[in-house]
Amino acid sequence: MSKRVERTDSLRAMTPEQLLEHLGQQRRRLFEVRFQQATGQVENHRQVRELRREIARTMSVQLEAQGASASDQEQ
User: How far is CA 54 from CA 2, 28, 39, 45, 73, in A?
Assistant: First the structure.
């Protein structure tokens, strides 16, 4: 399995509360990395891209979970 699939599967295993907490942590890390980048302290410039993708992945899993719960309620 690829790393991307493993990351997504680990996110899918989280509860909605854990997903919210994870999303908050990733957004905070992105803020910190951007701040470091502005002050010239970042060594790995790809971190911003990786964090943005992780945030998007987390938000996608959240939407999947909301869609699944909505369809369960309709039935």
Answer: 15, 12, 23, 15, 29
Query: Containing domain of residue 10, as a range?
Result: 3-74
d(CA 57, CA 63): 10
* C-alpha dist (Å) from residue 60 to 26, 38, 51: 14, 29, 14
- Over its C-alpha atoms, the chain yields an Rg (Å, rounded) of 15
User: Which residue did the predictor score with more confidence, 58 or 65?
Assistant: 58
Number of domains in the chain: 1
Give the domain CATH number at 31.
1.10.287.310
pTM value is 0.84
Residue 13: its H or E element = none
